Structures are given as structure tokens and as C-alpha cells.
Amino acid sequence: MQDIMELIRRKDPEQREFHQAVKEVLISIEPVLEQNPVYREAKILERLVEPERLIVFRVPWVDDRGEIQVNRGFRVEMNSAIGPYKGGLRFHPSVNLGILKFLAFEQVFKNALTTLPMGGGKGGSDFDPKGKSENEVMRFCHSFMAELYRHIGANTDVPAGDIGVGAREIGYLFGMYKKLRNEFTGVLTGKSLNWGGSLVRPEATGYGSVYFCAEMLATRSKTLEGTTCLVSGSGNVAQYTAEKLIELDAKVVTLSDSSGYIFDESGIDREKLEFVKTLKNIRRGRIKEYAEKYPQAVYTPVDPALDYNPLWNHAADCAFPSATQNEINAKDARNLVNNKVQVVCEGANMPTTPEGIDIFIDSGLLYGPGKAANAGGVSVSGLEMTQNSMRLSWNRDEVDNRLKMIMANIHQTCLDAAARYGHAGNYMVGANIAGFVKVVDAMLDQGVV
Ligand code: NDP
Ligand code: 2IT
Predict the structure, then answer these.
(1) Helix or strand or coil: residue 76?
(2) 220 Cα–ligand 1 center, Å
(3) pLDDT > 70: what percent of the chain?
(4) Are 418 and 433 within 8 A, CB to CB?
(5) Spans of all domains in the chain
(6) Integer CA distances (angstroms), 48 to 105, 329, 391, in order
(7) How many angstroms separate the CA atoms of 267 and 195, rounded?
(8) For the CA of 375, the nearest atom of ligand 2
(9) Ligand 1 lined by 258 (C-beta under 6 Å)
(10) What architecture does CATH give domain 204-364?
(11) CB-based contacts of 400, cutoff 8 Å, min separation 6
(12) pLDDT tens-digit readout, 254-300
């Protein structure tokens, strides 16, 4: 394990998030490696941490003032042992190779847990959609796809959305792909409904996270009804997490964006959530406006001098980090535990630092790691691919029922794998082991490729 960590640190010293994601998996799978020397002989770990292919490209575009802008585009094709590369695209100024490699690495295990035939990949750009006009976003997406199209395909690599990439961006990306390839295929998921998208894909990550949370609570004979919930973020995952929680009679009291968060003690109801959806998805405004519209809510701007996030310091039963990586540090984790939060369910990818995770697990609260809890999004992406291949579409109940079944199955898979290796109740260890075994056994079957 130490050798592998040294290897990746030496090769790519600046890729901290990637090191973090790999280390967590390595610690979890130690008992599996001990019992299966064949993995070591086959250099499985060395192969697993090296992406099958890295694509880095120039994305030139012209802004509304007629000035030329240049961004960097990426696609990390991490592992295709169990299916075509599959994973989202992130457009955010913080995007770099280390972040995308961590996301692609997580995706490999997550996709294996879904039981659907999908390998792992991730891509994106350091492009910042904030403040850009509709036309600028379109020109950027077109330029991005003018290079990416030669590397992807319905049976090769199927991107989708992530931070900064939603239905609007997927539309522009698909348009350029179709024009260049002269074919209409399921090369992207998260498409709009009337041209190949799946029902429930927009809702899937948030709904799936809540279904996973309900499964965890059920192991302690509890339900979400009447609970108070902290949700961070206010994008795709946060909105549909809140929507499902409201439907299950839980009270959601927070939402956030990168500028600050709102605390609404009376609870965010359906009408208030509709306001948030319009604010974020159509007007593309800031969460601060929520407190202007609903004055009983308190808005707290981000304070860079604080070493914790006050959003995680409210009395609550459940926490759903649904914004970004490392948004819960050790101090936040301690605050959540001290406030008697019973379950932390990760809608975002790797939102908790390793120190934070240790605090959760030591405290005995129910901790649902992102690669299991947020797998609903990519699961319904997989179902979208199935529907595209069959050239038909399922109704809402059909997709939602499959999503529920997949989340319940992932939950059970995590519990079984954890128990088998002496970590009963540890969903993180269970998710890492179950995902790992599935992928590396496929790699062994396929030989040294
Ligand atoms: P969106 O772009 O729709 O929303 C992201 C939200 O998180 C926004 O509120 C954004 O605020 C906030 N945010 C982003 N970066 C930061 C940051 N550095 N600091 C604080 N807040 C930040 O993205 P999604 O909802 O799709 O993604 C949220 C998380 O869920 C990500 O970790 C993503 O990888 C993960 N995920 C997404 C899936 C999907 O299907 N979309 C599937 C599985 C996981 P602001 O507007 O100010 O930037
Ligand atoms: O992190 C993720 O799982 C996603 N952003 C969704 C990926 C997908 O292919 O739907």
C-alpha cells in the first residue's frame, strides 16, 4: 500500500485529491489483498491507479466582445474493464487533472456498484460558466465537443453532467457531436426528454441519495419522517435531495452556494424549493436571494477567516453534503457529531476529508460514502443508455422503481462486503471492497491489457 502511495505521489506530486481518493480505497481493501495474493502478483493496484488514457486539449472560443478565450479541456478514461467509460463533465475554474483523476477513480468503483455495465471516466474544463451569456456557453460547448467528439461514442465513452454541466450544456454538446459524426446515438446522458433523455435522470442523484439514506436509517428501525435535514449546495443534486426529503415529510433547513448559505428554521417547503429552482436553473442567481424573498431565513456569507462551515453547526438529524469535495473538515464533522446528527449521506463526490470520515465512523453514526450514496445519477444514466439502445423509453414509475431497487441493492452490497471482511456496518469499507473486487476480477479475466 505504501509503495503505491509513494508511486503516485512521485509521479504526480501535485494531485492531492487523487492521492486522497486512492488512499481511502487502499486502506479499505487491505484485508482483501491479504486473502488474495493473486491481485498483488498481477500488479492490479499499479494498473488501477494509472488511467487507461488521458486526453488534454485546447478549447478556443470567442466571447461576446469578440475577444478570443482559451480554456483547457480534459477527459480521463480511467478504466473500461466492465463497460465503456462513463462519467460526468465538470465545468468549473478549479478543474485540473488531479481533480478529474480523483473523480474518475471514484467513478470506477461507483459504476461497478450500480451492477450496470459501465467503466469509469470523468472530464471537463477550467471554463467558468458563471456570468457567461447563453451564446458564450453555447460557443464554448461547441468548441469543447469539436475536439472531444473523436474520443467518445455510445460504445466507447459516454459523458454526462456534473458541476456546471446540466441539461443546457448537454444539449449544446450533443448538437455539435451529431453534426460532426452525422449520427444520432446515445453518446451523452442527461439529454432532454424529447430527444433521447430518460425520465427521472435530472432527479436521480438527489432522489437516489435520499433512498440510500432511508435504507441506512431502516437498519436502525428509523425513517426520515419528521427529521430535520441539513443540505449543502443548491444545484442539481441539492435541489432533488431537498425535493424527495420534503415529499417524505422531512424538514430541510439549509441550502448553499459558493458565496454562502441560508438557514430557514421553518423549513424549505415545495413552494420555496420552486423559487430556488427558478433562481438557480433559469435566472442563475445566488442563494442569498432566498433570504431576500423569505425574510424569516438567515443568510450567512462565506467567511474565509473561519476554519469550519457554520452550515454544519445546526441541530439536525441528517446531513446531505451535496456541493463539492472536502466541504466537511474535521471540525465540521465534530460539530455534526456533537449536534447528534445520526446520518451523513454524501450526494457530492468525496465531500468529507479523511479526518472527518474517521470522526464519523468512530462516533457510530450512519455514514454513507459518495460512491455508494450518489450512485443514483449514473445508474439512471445507465438506464438512459439502455433505453437509447432499445429505441424506446420507460415511464416515470418504471425508471424510479429501478432506481429504488438499485439503491437498495447497493446498500445491501456494501453491508455484505463490510461484514465479510470484519467491518460490519462500515459502508465506506463495504463500498470500496465490493467495487474493487468486481472491477479487478474483470481485469484479471481480460489479461494484461
Ligand atoms: P451543480 O453545478 O448543479 O451545483 C453545484 C452546487 O455546489 C452549487 O450550489 C455550487 O455553488 C456549489 N459548489 C460548487 N463548487 C463549490 C465550491 N468549490 N465551494 C462551495 N460550493 C460549491 O452540480 P451538481 O449538483 O451536479 O453537483 C454537486 C456535487 O454532486 C458534485 O460533487 C458532483 O460531483 C456530485 N455529483 C453529481 C451528480 C450529478 O448527476 N449531477 C452525480 C453524482 C455526484 P456555486 O453556484 O456558487 O458554484
Ligand atoms: O459523479 C457522477 O456520478 C456524475 N456526475 C454522473 C455521471 C453520469 O455519467 O451520469
Answers:
(1) strand
(2) 30
(3) 100
(4) yes
(5) 2-183, 204-364
(6) 8, 27, 34
(7) 36
(8) 3
(9) yes
(10) 3-Layer(aba) Sandwich (3.40)
(11) 199, 200, 207
(12) 999 999 999 999 999 999 999 999 999 999 999 999 999 999 999 99
